[in-house]
Amino acid sequence: MKSSVGENIFQFILIAFICGLCTAMIYPFIHIASVSLSGPAESTRMGFHLYPKDIDLFSWKQVVSQQKIWWGFGNSAFRTVVGTLLTLVAMSMVAYPLSRKTLPHRSFYTMIILFTMFFSGGLIPSYLLIKELHLMDSRWVYIIPGLVPTFSMLVLRNFFMSIPQEVEESARIDGANDIRVLVTIVLPLSKPVLATLALWTAVGHWNAWFDAVLYISDQSKQVLQFFLREIVILNADKETFGSTVVGNYKYETSIKAATVMFAVLPILIVYPFLQKYFVKGTMIGSLKG
């Protein structure tokens, strides 16, 4: 069937809009990558940077040679990997009983948990609670306070509710208890939504820095984003890298760009492996139930 003129115009506008949106999202990464690989003269040049005209790896060498950066990388990797795994386990243990109609007062418990999405005690009570729990200057402060994110747990609960009851009932006839049903039947069927929630959680942990500012004073326990914030926003790069001058130009701009790329690359590497589950898991987990 031949498309009308109006449909062709609409498709052209839609394609142009999507191409413009993709360009607006991709270009900043290209710009930062180009600046990070450029020398001091090119990195401070105004205008667009699509590729490095004079490749200079000095800034990258400075970044990867700093002990603070590797401290931050290790702590960020710890909170991302351990925090994501523990969050998936904890969310599954909370979401599964809330998805079963046999749980007494299920709606009440769900409303209590939902309440925490919209209201919190505030910054000062949270700080006092963390202090009383002896989590100050502990790496576990990155993981325990946000162990069960409410929104993600509700998405997982909705997905569990969409699984046919007959599948579980057949397992119970064979003598399986709740834990066995969850581990051997429910979780394997939930791989798409679990992969999506794992990606959300991992990105959240990797990008987090505010809790490090509040609760951590030992620099060896700080996360990578904390040092990235110091270098890029607070201009503390001279304290970390020293003042490196070539002629009348400095490497400050390219060092900042290299630090940003160093912090972004791990997530960019991991995302393609989970991307195939992302759309499917989000749609199923949020629409069914």
UniProtKB/TrEMBL annotation:
<dbReference type="GO" id="GO:0005886">
    <property type="term" value="C:plasma membrane"/>
</dbReference>
<keyword id="KW-1133">Transmembrane helix</keyword>
<feature type="transmembrane region" description="Helical">
    <location>
        <begin position="108"/>
        <end position="128"/>
    </location>
</feature>
<dbReference type="InterPro" id="IPR035906">
    <property type="entry name" value="MetI-like_sf"/>
</dbReference>
<feature type="transmembrane region" description="Helical">
    <location>
        <begin position="77"/>
        <end position="96"/>
    </location>
</feature>
<keyword id="KW-0812">Transmembrane</keyword>
<dbReference type="GO" id="GO:0055085">
    <property type="term" value="P:transmembrane transport"/>
</dbReference>
<feature type="transmembrane region" description="Helical">
    <location>
        <begin position="12"/>
        <end position="30"/>
    </location>
</feature>
<keyword id="KW-1003">Cell membrane</keyword>
<feature type="transmembrane region" description="Helical">
    <location>
        <begin position="140"/>
        <end position="160"/>
    </location>
</feature>
<keyword id="KW-0813">Transport</keyword>
<feature type="transmembrane region" description="Helical">
    <location>
        <begin position="181"/>
        <end position="203"/>
    </location>
</feature>
<protein>
    <submittedName>
        <fullName>Carbohydrate ABC transporter membrane protein 2, CUT1 family (TC 3.A.1.1.-)</fullName>
    </submittedName>
</protein>
<dbReference type="Pfam" id="PF00528">
    <property type="entry name" value="BPD_transp_1"/>
</dbReference>
<feature type="transmembrane region" description="Helical">
    <location>
        <begin position="255"/>
        <end position="274"/>
    </location>
</feature>
<feature type="domain" description="ABC transmembrane type-1">
    <location>
        <begin position="73"/>
        <end position="274"/>
    </location>
</feature>
<dbReference type="InterPro" id="IPR000515">
    <property type="entry name" value="MetI-like"/>
</dbReference>
<comment type="similarity">
    <text>Belongs to the binding-protein-dependent transport system permease family.</text>
</comment>
<keyword id="KW-0472">Membrane</keyword>
